[in-house]
TrEMBL record:
GO molecular function, one term: kinase activity
InterPro entries associated with the record: Carboh/pur_kinase_PfkB_CS (IPR002173), PfkB_dom (IPR011611), Ribokinase-like (IPR029056)
Pfam families assigned to the protein according to its UniProt record, in alphabetical order: PfkB (PF00294)
Designated name of the protein: Sugar or nucleoside kinase, ribokinase family
Carbohydrate kinase PfkB domain ranges (all copies): 15-122, 177-272
Domain of life of the native organism: Bacteria
Protein keywords: Kinase, Transferase
Organism encoding this protein: Gemmiger formicilis
């Protein structure tokens, strides 16, 4: 299985401990997919600063292909700053500077590369909503992470990005089935086949064209929840694809429960490591602040 993770790359900076980790939704998913045995590729714009080199090194060391990423000369890498206490992070700020690479612009070469994928995953943090229709028109199974922010849950945003989504994932507070069904309804109306809500310690709920499947979670004492959702998503996607997932195909409950279990196992393990995938970077505080 070839998985292409399309979108963002960042440096996650832990302000209170002065620690840095390469990350970003797409980078994290690509690394975890590679660790699970997938042929994984990251596709996104890379800068040519010290931060970008750290991201590139981490991807290469984890067996992720970055050979089709444009490297933009003179451009810099986004830094996301957090405080992390008892494993839980609180957001401080995003530092882009005047020369941030910005989102990837998909041209003919990138589109040709995306055509080689069996599975493509992207997210709201890729900042590429206007380009999603072209990507979803390709033969690959397509998954999209809508994150946790309400600005990515509006009718206008759904209209822009929903053109053939096989799996939509949302990070949510705990909710009951009725609230989950209400959350899923506008996505299903736009043709989304599977909708997955991850709710932290409360577990996950999954809607398959309106039929709800749920699974309680494994409880762990997390040392760092960064990347928990991305590791879950990577394992879920890999499991479901090996069960015969195809574009626009609703999957049976048994395969979905197995994929949820796989996601929980990998996510629980990742919560025992620091950063998106346990790769710490040596960067001076002066380079960040």
């Amino acid at each position: 299985m070839k998985l292409i993770a399309l979108g963002d790359n960042v440096i996650d900076y832990y302000h209170n401990t002065q620690e840095c980790f390469p990350g970003g939704n797409a980078v994290n998913v690509a690394v975890h997919a590679a660790r699970l045995g997938a042929q994984a590729e990251y596709l996104g714009s890379l800068g040519d600063d010290k931060m970008a080199h750290i991201v590139e090194k981490a991807l290469r060391e984890n067996g992720v292909d970055i050979s089709h990423c444009p490297v933009l000369q003179g451009r810099t890498t986004k830094v996301c700053s957090y405080d992390v206490v008892n494993g839980e992070r609180s957001f401080i700020e995003v530092i882009t500077g005047e020369s941030w690479t910005g989102p990837l612009q998909i041209g003919a070469q990138e589109l040709d590369e995306l055509k080689t994928a069996d599975l493509i995953v992207s997210s709201c943090n890729a900042k590429m909503p206007e380009q999603m229709a072209a990507v979803q028109a390709l033969p690959a199974v397509f998954a999209y992470d809508f994150g946790e922010k309400e600005k990515y849950r509006t009718d206008a945003y759904y209209d822009e990005v929903c053109h053939g989504i096989d799996l939509a994932m949302l990070s949510c507070k705990p909710m009951d089935k009725a609230a989950f069904a209400e959350l899923c309804a506008p996505l299903h109306r736009r043709g989304v086949v599977h909708v997955l809500a991850t709710m932290g310690a409360a577990g996950q709920m999954l809607s398959v064209q309106g039929k709800i499947v749920e699974k309680t979670t494994q409880m762990v004492e997390a040392s760092d929840t960064m990347g928990a959702g991305d590791s879950f998503l990577a394992a879920f996607l890999c499991s479901l694809y090996t069960a015969g997932w195809q574009k626009a195909k609703p999957m049976p409950e048994q395969a979905l429960l197995a994929a949820l279990a796989a996601g929980q196992q990998v996510s629980a393990r990742n919560c025992m490591a620091q950063g998106g995938f346990g790769c710490k970077a040596e960067i001076s505080r002066d380079s960040i602040e």
